[in-house]
Design goal:
With 245 residues, the chain is α/β, with parallel strands linked by helices. It has one domain: P-loop containing nucleotide triphosphate hydrolases (Rossmann fold, 3-Layer(aba) Sandwich). It has helices at 17-41, 58-65, 84-87, 93-96, 118-121, 127-148, 161-173, 183-189, 192-205, 218-235, and strands spanning 45-52, 74-78, 105-109, 150-158, 211-214. Helix 1 (17-41) runs parallel beside helix 10 and helix 2 (58-65) packs across helix 10.
């Protein structure tokens, strides 16, 4: 049973920030190199899911980990409030049409999991509907894996409430971050415990396991995620295709 209060939101003691940032850059370059073979190989699809509280660093992690990957290979998609058209379909309709093809990487900044998180917290759906949707998500992800050889990496960016408040305040205080400020984020922050309960429910019921990433320090968060992405690409044993005789 996963309980998030058992996981640290900070880097292990003794790690050197400067050294880790250097390693992260080296790993990101390797990801970039492998991504070119990955695109040519076209035997796998890669879906990367980032979930976390507001200001947990989903955008920043995406930029650092995939900074050396061509935009023709990796594309980030941010899920917003469903449109009336999307609401007239099943909740996975808008997701399925943008999952990666073989040779592509799709990065979800928030994802189909919003439909069992924010909707549960605000009581827009009941617990029975939550369980039904989690079962549908498990089936959906199994389909992607089995039918299109999709590797799914799911990251929960584990931020402390104290750090979130600090980062939300920065959006008000720093000119270069003012554009990110949303008064609604402060209202959602008041529901912290409810969101933790919703995330724990998801983390414990998903068939494909989540990586819980300490997110209070962006340098360690980026390093941790980059290592996992690189390992996933290396395990694919990618090769450039040869010309046929």
């Amino acid at each position: 049973m996963i309980k998030l209060n058992k996981f640290s939101t900070r880097a292990p003691k003794g790690l050197k920030k400067k050294k880790i940032k250097k390693k992260t850059k080296e790993i990101a370059k390797k990801i970039g190199e492998l991504s070119r073979i990955y695109e040519a190989d076209k035997s796998h699809a890669l879906l990367v899911v980032f979930q976390g509280m507001d200001s947990s660093g989903k955008d920043g992690t995406t930029r650092e980990v995939f900074k050396y990957v061509s935009p023709s290979i990796a594309c980030a998609y941010s899920f917003k409030k469903p449109t009336p058209l999307e609401m007239s379909h099943d909740f996975l309709w808008r997701v399925h049409k943008i999952v990666p093809a073989k040779g592509q990487i799709r990065i979800f900044n928030r994802s189909h999991y919003e439909d069992v998180l924010i909707q549960r917290v605000h009581h827009w759906i009941n617990d029975e509907k939550v369980d039904q949707r989690i079962a549908s998500i498990n089936n959906f992800e199994r389909l992607l894996k089995q039918d299109n050889n999709t590797k799914i990496l799911k990251f929960y960016l584990h931020l402390s409430h104290e750090k979130q408040k600090e980062k939300l305040q920065e959006r008000k205080d720093l000119l270069e971050k003012n554009w990110k400020h949303n008064p609604g984020d402060w209202e959602e922050s008041k529901l912290w415990e409810q969101y933790i309960d919703a995330y724990e429910n998801v983390l414990n019921k998903c068939e494909i396991a989540w990586h819980i990433i300490p997110a209070d320090q962006r340098w360690y968060r980026n390093y941790y995620v980059a290592k996992i992405v690189l390992h996933a690409l290396e395990k694919m044993k990618l090769q450039y295709p040869k010309l046929e005789e």
